[in-house]
Write a structure and sequence with these properties.
2 strands, globular, mainly alpha
Length: 405
Amino acid sequence: MGLDLMDPEHLEHEDIAYDEEVASAFDANVKASEEADTFLHAQADQMRRSSSWRTYVMLIAVTINYVMVPGFFASIGWALAVIVLFWGWGHSLITGLMLDKVSEAKPQILSYPDLGTYVGAKLTKGSKHGRRAGFWIIWVSQAIGNFLISVANLGFCAQFFQAIFPQPCYIWWVVISYGITVVLCQVPTFHESYGVNMQSIISYAVLFVLIIVNMIITGKVPDVNYEIGDVPDLFNGIAGICFAFGGHAVFPEARREMREPKRFKVTIYWMYATLGISMAVCGFLGYGLFGSEAEINIFDNFTYNASVVVGNVLMLLAFFGALVIGNIITMMSVQTVLKIPLLGWIEPKSYGMPVGVTRVLLRVVIVSLELFLALLIPFIGDLVGLTGAFSSVILTFMFPPIAYW
């Protein structure tokens, strides 16, 4: 009999039942992971403020990235492009639904590290070490992975700035991007980031139309060929497409902020419909026209004109949306472990200061560390981007099935 992912009774099946021993172990407070969990649950009701639309906007802002897809196709060729695109699309949709179903069946799961605690308890029959290991494995994968991706995005924003304004030098644009990011990342939770997210998806919508129009105007490259790249190119192309369907690292946290968490499933469907259609259209059309010459930034394939400048501006705005959300999830994870309240500005007190002051200082430190890494090594963007993508693969493709079954 086929597995019905949408059956609410699936998780209650005797073969995968979450027995009383494990449930009791999950609810116990054990050092840092359980203290963080209790601390987070005390704020849960205050955070349930976002509508389905706000959640959709936030998820699109942090995940959609069709601009690079033709370049990824150029690395792997038609056959692999079709397979990886539709496999990544379908598999990530299913694992997203799995996360939603686990969160629905276990209301105590309010964050991805909570899910790690749950799985650690499940796999080790309630072992304290298993629960702590589960929490910290996922916490590191989520927080550090998003942190490293934010470092890469900081560099990308500086590159877009420099494409628009060649002067001053790249280093100054990194510093300017850092200053903007520090300000934007002071919003406490996803709910307050709506303005940044909205401008991000508007930018992506206009950018999509601009890309299609430029593709039609440019036309097919003479003597186009579809030769695939070497082994590193194959790896980067496959990883790039799979990574583009990520976002699972923020799913439990996004769900906990919804006024009606049961509508998160519908939000996931709309999110993946948007991702899949935009990536398929841009990828197939771009690769079909430019073949192996398709660039990672598709605008590099167009004749330089005003629309290319506008495209770089739109990509800059869109990347700031992803940069803010990636940072916020890292910051909320760190705040939870350090027991710094996620909400409030004056009250309650935290470390002897108004919580707003503590939160601002912590977030300035986190973004400053990103600036340090972005400036430390010229190719840090490629390095940390690959590391972040690996982390995303764990959270998107590997861990949800383990939690579900």
